[in-house]
Amino acid sequence: MSAQENHAMVRTVASTQSEMTEIILPNDTNLLGNLLGGRLMHFIDLTGAVAAFRHSRTYVVTAAMDHIDFIQPVRLGDLVTLKASVNRAFTSSMEVGVRVEAENTRTGAVTHVASAYIVYVAVDEHGRVQKVPQLKPETPNEIRRYEDALRRREHRERESARRVEAKLAVAARAEAQEKPQQSGSSIH
Ligand SMILES: CC(C)(COP(=O)(O)OP(=O)(O)OC[C@H]1O[C@@H](n2cnc3c(N)ncnc32)[C@H](O)[C@@H]1OP(=O)(O)O)[C@@H](O)C(=O)NCCC(=O)NCCS
């Protein structure tokens, strides 16, 4: 299928869904017996990438992960279930939402422990950016997430522009501070 044909396709949110369950073992935890944050981010990235694969049917790379709230600790021996689906597809990028729940194996109690939004970009085997199919939200929740994803993308773009401006301002200040010293040293 050509890149244009792939981009013209329309997929449903349901067709992108992915789910993963892990049992939390000693190697996954800190000295207090709680799941390590970095390990959870790894699970989140993998589950999100599967949803992005299912939508794009290409290779994908992680472009950005929004801040994650770790709402509750996950304990050694808990089951962690991650559920992901594509919220919105743009030209070559896709925003994926991931929800994480922990289940106490003895009581069966399930708690929401974290959520994250991740942006994946479709690429070919040489790392060149590829267009992705469009996403059709169907249920009220899918439509809400679809609309929110555009707002988050605009927010990310504003934040990215702000960071570039801040870096340029720091570089300009550093250059301005260096100049008088350079001219001063030439006097001696
Ligand atoms: C992500 C990457 C492919 C983008 O390449 P690029 O040359 O900046 O591509 P473009 O400027 O054409 O942007 C392509 C898309 O990526 C999106 N994008 C790029 N950087 C982004 C960022 N930091 N956050 C969110 N989206 C981003 C753009 O919005 C654009 O989306 P659209 O086509 O849907 O409008 C490139 O930056 C990259 O390879 N980064 C490293 C990825 C990586 O190693 N991840 C960790 C391991 S998987």
Describe the 3D structure.
The chain is α+β, with helices and mostly antiparallel strands and 188 residues long. The protein has one domain (3-139): Thiol Ester Dehydrase, Chain A. It has helices spanning 3-8, 37-56, 140-187; strands spanning 10-12, 18-23, 59-65, 69-70, 79-89, 93-103, 110-123, 134-136. It is globular and about 70 Å long. The N and C termini lie far apart (70 Å). Bound molecules: coenzyme A.
Short recap of the structure:
With about 190 residues, this protein is an alpha+beta fold.
CATH superfamily: Hotdog Thioesterase
- Give the ordered list of helices and strands: HEEHEEEEEEH
Major sheet characteristics: 6 strands, antiparallel
* Percentage of residues in DSSP E strands: 25-35%
CATH-derived topology: Thiol Ester Dehydrase, Chain A
> How confident is the prediction overall: mean pLDDT?
93
Question: What ligands does this structure carry?
Answer: coenzyme A
Share in helix: 25-40%
* Tally of helical segments: 3
Tell me, what's the shape? Answer: globular
Compute the CA-based radius of gyration: 22 Å
Low-confidence stretches: none
Ends distance: 70 Å
Structural class: alpha+beta
Name the CATH architecture.
Answer: Roll
**Tally of individual domains:** 1
Task: Provide the descriptors you would attach to this structure in a database record.
single chain; 188 residues; alpha+beta; Thiol Ester Dehydrase, Chain A; six-stranded antiparallel sheet; two-stranded parallel sheet; 39% helix; globular; hydrolase; long-chain fatty acyl-CoA hydrolase activity; HOTDOG_ACOT; Cytosol_ACT; Thioestr_dom
